[in-house]
Amino acid sequence: MRQISGKILFGLMLSMLLLVVFSSAQAWAVEVETLSLDTNGDSYPTVYSQSPLTNGSTYIITVEGTWSPWAASNWLDQVDPPAGPYEEAPMYSSNGGTGRVGSDPFWNFACIYGLDYTGWSSLPVKSSLRMSLDNGASWVTSIRPTNDVYNPLHKYDVRVTGEGENMGFRIIDAEAYDNYGTLKIIISSEQLSGPTAGGFPLEYILVAIGAIAIVAALLVFFVLKRKKPKN
Questions:
Q1: Quick check: is 1 in a domain?
Q2: Do 19 and 43 belong to one domain?
Q3: β-strands 46-48, 168-171: how paired?
Q4: Pick from 86, 28, 58, 61: which is nearest to 162 by CA?
Q5: What's residue 1's pLDDT?
Q6: Which of 21, 74, 173, 179 is most deeply buried (CB count within 10 A of its CB)?
Q7: 89 and 203 housed in the same domain
Q8: Which of 27, 29, 30, 11 lies closest to 203 in space, CA to CA?
Q9: If you average pLDDT over residues 153-163, what whole number do you get?
Q10: Are 80 and 173 in the same domain?
Q11: How many helices (H) and strands (E) does the chain have?
Q12: Pair (33, 142) in one structural domain
């Protein structure tokens, strides 16, 4: 039977070590805080993060939920049936009560008046959630989900870079008194290192264990090779 040389064995073990390193050195999302944006209010319902987002750091913002910009009775009183696949109740309740919904954080998927009234040519269309990275000094529509397509589960991830200010979330509706539904917002910090053990990143510990295993295996290999009697 052909013997495996020490160089080949070392190469195989080194490849295994590198595989461990690269598989463990991945991004991890560490939850920072959770917010609730009640879409019901006097005008422009808004919520801010409790802490500023570190300047230059990457964050993953997870937003989910459904809501309605119209009163619950409006969904029932119209002569024409609503356009789009409305849902019977919001995912998360609010001070505005409950009823049918046709909007989520980033998309309107149903409308009570029909497309001719709103001027929408098709559904879904982008909804009225705005975000601010500078504590409300400016509100933008350009912050969109990483996978910017309508999700019938109404849950989206957004990646942003902190600017050293609190982050804000706002519904652009000057007459929000008849709105209902709450959006759940989770702010997570993206970490390039994995979880730690004893204060050391996990990938460093795995590298050390792998290196020790390689050295031990090579020692055993060469000791057995030297003890093997020559013919």
A1: no
A2: no
A3: antiparallel
A4: 58
A5: 45
A6: 179
A7: no
A8: 27
A9: 97
A10: yes
A11: 4, 11
A12: yes
